[in-house]
Amino acid sequence: MKTATLISAADAPRTAERIRRLRSLAWLLDNSIPLPGGYRIGLDPIIGLVPGLGDAIGALFSAFIINEARSLGAPRSVLLRMIGNVAIETVVGAIPFAGDIFDAAFKANTRNLALLARYQLDPIGSRRSSRFFVAGFSLLLAIVVAFMIAVPVLVIFAMVKLIWQ
Known about the structure:
This protein is mainly α. The chain has seven helices and two strands; from the N terminus they run αββαααααα. It has one domain (12-163). It has helices at 12-30, 43-47, 53-71, 76-93, 98-106, 108-121, 123-163; strands spanning 33-34, 40-41. The chain is flat, with a radius of gyration of 20 Å.
């Protein structure tokens, strides 16, 4: 089991600067453009308007944030949760227009920075919470996959039964 990475006094300013840059990137992607009514969006949903390529570019920026979190010592469970956020945003964001609205509201990069900050404040608590989330998400994914397999199989069996009658 990987233990929490301790930051030495010499590394603290460098780590703080890296986190500041990550926060700036997340802000740029998720909250940099003010809209009427006090709501904010970022460049990510705007980039996502470009069919196919836009969501892939957004996912690459998000992957950079996840990789930086990894190099800052975030455990696998937190990283998997971050990857889940990006996967949800990328997959749903690929739906034309409705996905871009979801992308503007979901703000995966801001969520991921919050996960990293929570890990840095409470490494053990956030690791437990993320493990629970990953386990629940894995169970839900297994159920969805089983359902996606079971429904077509049942339809095929019903069709075969109708044909042979």
